[in-house]
Amino acid sequence: MELGLDVVLFRILLEKAGRALRNGSTNMDVLVVVGTTACYVYSVYALLYGAISGFWSPTYFETSAMLITFVLLGEYLETLAKGKTSDAIKKLVELTPGGRVISQREIDALLIQPGDVLKVLPGARVPVDGVVVWGSNHVNKSMVTGESVLVLKEVNSVVIGSTINLHGSLHIQATKVDSNTVLSQIILVVETSQTSKAPIQKFADYVSIIWHVFCQNSVMTLAN
């Protein structure tokens, strides 16, 4: 059973390590493949040597299988986490308003420029980051900041794009638009964190490079 599990799981990991090597790089998958291969080869040797000589040494088939299982399980959980992050990014993008009233005309939010004075109607989303120049009303910021308590916005109060204006109208002057808004910066941070590697993963990749070079030099030395 352990042998079958080793073969199935090792094949999955070997394919991932092979892709990394074909791209001219080494990563944690390569390190795990080298380690588990050495573990498996030694166990087979110990088993055959024991059958011939009668001197039985410990074998580590189960260690190899457990190591590969834990690595693949960790990568599976990482994939699930990235999927949830993608859903979160999609929901954040959906918060971006489509059009708002300016000079009593509704225009696309992409046409808004810093300094424009916008009228935000009751129940509408604030189109961009800005400052209140007229009116007083409560704003729901929960979808952006997580605050569950409604916040009162008055003249000179700062408002964040994509928050919801509740009952009365507000006139705001745009200060940040497009990629400079708070919502756009949040989306950028989430996307960056999704694509970047954790420090421990970078360290594992670095160790795998050193280990790969060490094993390669050892094999060449033994061959000579």
TrEMBL record:
**Subcellular localization:** Membrane
- Which residue spans traverse the membrane? 30-52
> InterPro entries, alphabetically?
ATPase_P-typ_transduc_dom_A_sf, ATPase_P-type_domA, P_typ_ATPase
The record, for Gene3D superfamilies, names: Calcium-transporting ATPase, cytoplasmic transduction domain A (2.70.150.10)
Q: Which residues does the UniProt record annotate as the domain P-type ATPase A? A: 103-190
| A GO MF term | metal ion binding
Protein name as annotated:
Copper-transporting ATPase RAN1 isoform X3
Could you list this entry's UniProt keywords, alphabetically sorted. Answer: Membrane, Metal-binding, Transmembrane, Transmembrane helix
Superkingdom: Eukaryota
Q: Specify the species.
A: Nicotiana tabacum (Common tobacco)
Cite a GO CC annotation: membrane
